[in-house]
Amino acid sequence: MLKIAWSSEYAHPLPPGHRFPMEKYELLPQQLMYEGTVSERNFFAPDAIEESLIIQVHDAQYWEKLKNLALSRSEERATGFPLSKELVDRETIIAGGSVRAALFALEFGISLNIAGGTHHAFTDRGEGFCLLNDIALANRYLQNEGLAKNILVIDLDVHQGNGTAQIFNDDPSVFTFSMHGAKNYPHRKEKSDLDIELPDGTGDEEYLTQLDLALENILKKFHPDFIMYQCGVDVLETDKLGRLGMSIEGVKMRDKKVLNLAKELKLPIMCSMGGGYSEKISHIIEAHAQVYRLAQDIFF
Length: 300
Known about the structure:
CATH topology: Arginase, Chain A
Distance between the termini: 7 Å
Radius of gyration: 17 Å
CATH architecture: 3-Layer(aba) Sandwich
Mean pLDDT: 96
Low-confidence stretches: none
Number of strands: 8
Order of helices and strands: EHEHHHHEHEHEEHEHEH
Number of domains: 1
Helix content: 40-55%
Strand order of the largest sheet: 2-1-3-8-7-4-5-6
CATH superfamily: Histone deacetylase domain
């Protein structure tokens, strides 16, 4: 059965005028149920991640500052969010969702988190709407429990997964692959195991060609037993922050390639949603919804 992490905490309200589209976390599960892709029994409500796991990935000092709402003004500005206890609690629940989704992926082949993909969170700081790195936390949990040894992170958000790259910089058991806009945020990139930087306006054909080549090359030298997939939809031509030129159909083909790869290689895959900032919320929801439809079609 397809299992999906979702909590009402995901849609924590932000001040009026904030550009982060929190409403997608309410609308996406509604759309998936309305169209019959899933039912209520596909969803599970995650618990907050354990503090003991947080401080295995993030610096204890950073976590103390975060949970006590003691970030400096500049540190808070870098996250892009007005800091609050509710927001920190939301991040711990999102991370808990990715950890439990990873466990369901081991059981069913695939699982998804309606939120997550917080790849701009470093060991010692948050950036770009990310406070805790759910991808890294789920990685570390699986490895700690002996449930996975070599993990491939496929990050196809339009923004480089700089926090994830930094966290696993010296860890050969995790291969970090990020394909992103060359001139987009973050302006100071980290070094992933493989970075593919795309010029502004890159469309479906070039994007998908580059993705095929990258996945082929990765699997020649790295042999994963688990995949973490950050499937942000800010690669869309309509995205306000993206600067690439992909269509909704192109995003569907992208997701299909990754999910088919996992299925063919019998690799469990956990998907987290990442970014999406199109002017029309319907574009965001439709682009995100595709990966859930594909998950049902390919794995079940």
